[in-house]
C-alpha cells in the first residue's frame, strides 16, 4: 500500500543546506503489513532527500483497521508535508481529525510520529535518545516472562531467566481447573493471538486467588529476595478482589502487580490502595493521557505502562511521562512480542532518556521477526542497551517482509464457567 508524489526522491540540489525544507518534504508513504511469525504493520515515510523513517502501527488482532486508517485517511495528508514539523503533524492528526483518541487512531498517529522522529534523528546524525535530551542511564532494566503449567514449572522458568542474567522476571502459572490460563501457552514462546477466530478460555476467580499467592511464596523460597518479581492479572478481578490479592501478595514484595482490575473506572484503584501497599502498574491498553489522568493525579498507581505505539507516539507519551513524574509515577512500558522491534527500539531510546524510568517489558521476538526488522539494541546483564545509529536504530527489510503475507489472528476471549463473557 503506497502514497506518492509524482516526483520521486532525488538528491538534494547543490547549495541547499542539509535538512532544508525541500529535502524534508515527504514524497512517499508506504504501509507494510508482514507476518514473520506474527502480524506487524509498519509505516515508512520517505523524504525528497531519500532519508526515510519507520513507525510501528501494530494493534494485535486489529492490524488491518490501523493499516486502512493510515492508508485511506492519513497518508493523503502526509504527502508534500515537511517531515520536520513533528508537533504540528501530531496536532493535525489528533485535533484535526475531530474524532479523537481510541486505540486505532492513536496507533496510526504513533506510527507517523515515530517515523518523523526517526527521520529527524537520521537527518541530524543523532540517535533518538540524544534528541530527547540525552542519556539518563547506561541501560534499561528489563523483565522477562516466566510461565509454567504449574507452580514448579513457573519456578524453574524463573530460574532460567536468572541464569541468563535477568534481574527482574514476571511470573505466571496455570490455575488448577482453568483451561488455558493467561500467560501459559502450548508452544514454547507465549503468543496469545493464536487463531483466526478468538480461542475460548474459561476463567475461575476463586481458584486463581488461591493459586497466585502460593506461586510467589514458592518463588521467594526458591530464588530469594534479590530478584524483582512481577505479575499480570490481565484485568480479571473486581476492585475488592484486586484489593484482596494485592494484600495477600504483600509478603512477597512484588515489583508490581499489573492490571489488577479493568481501569476504565479509574476510581476503582482507590479501593485497592486503601487495602494494600503492593505497587501497581496499569496502562498497556490506554492510548491517551486522559485515560490515566485521575490514576496519576491521585497517586493510585506506581507505574504507567502506556507505550509509544498505542499511546500516540513519542510526542504524546513524553507528555504523559512528564505529567507522571510530577507524582513520582514511573514508566514501565508494555513490550510484548505483538509490539514490533520498531516500537522496542523507540521505547528503549525513550527509556534511556526519561528521568522517571521504572522498567521495560521485554520478550524475545522470533528469529524471523528479528531478521525482518534488523536493529542495534542488545541485552547485557539484565539491561537493554541502545546503539548510536541515528534515529531509533531499527530498520525494515522490505524484500524479506514481502515473503510473509498477512495471516488473520485474533486474541482469545474469556468466559466464566456458567458461560458469561468475562475480561480476557
Ligand atoms: C500482556 C500482553 O505483556 C503483557 O503484559 O498483557 O501479553 C497482552 O496480552 C498482549 O500484548 C495483547 O496483545
Ligand atoms: Mg499486561
UniProtKB/TrEMBL annotation:
Renumbered to this chain, the signal peptide range is: none
InterPro entries, per the entry: D-mannonate_dehydratase-like, DgoD-like, Enolase-like_C_sf, Enolase-like_N, Enolase_C-like, Mandel_Rmase/mucon_lact_enz_CS, Mandelate_racemase_C, Mandelate_racemase_N_dom
Pfam families with a match to the protein in the record: MR_MLE_C (PF13378), MR_MLE_N (PF02746)
Mandelate racemase/muconate lactonizing enzyme C-terminal domain ranges (all copies): 151-279
Q: Region (Disordered) spans which residues?
A: 1-22
Record's compositionally biased regions (Low complexity): 1-20
| Entry superkingdom | Bacteria
Its recorded name reads: D-galactonate dehydratase family protein
Q: List the source organism.
A: Luteimonas endophytica
